[in-house]
């Protein structure tokens, strides 16, 4: 009987430790920076031919773009349905364009596979960057933004924002509009 009690007590203790660590992980990802109230620095739309793919906005705490290190919030509102795999492929293509090596960005793409959903027209992906930590939010058409992931390293966090904010981006006019220079 004593051994059964000890086993049950140990099980409760381990379960409590597991639940406590899950709460810690969730609180690490939770963002309380108030990014939703930040003023917009700039706005831009990405079009391909006759189709507008998405509208984007860059926001910062004071409405000024001071560099890609942040703090910043990049909001992308999709104007078309796009498969999550297509988002991953496009992200990898952009990192390749920026000069990242496959061995460097392939693990990041794999990691984002757990973050990027299939998006529908009106859905929004939001990326916040602050102190080398990137947090991803997903907002279904006019819903409440929900945290869906966090970058595993500051290198990945910087690389993700570089897709839009690097001077070497594939879309320099979009970048200029986002940072308030156009």
TrEMBL record:
Domain of life the protein comes from? Bacteria
Q: Which UniProt keywords apply?
A: Signal
- Which residues, if any, are the signal sequence? 1-21
User: Per its record, how is this protein called by name?
Assistant: Uncharacterized protein
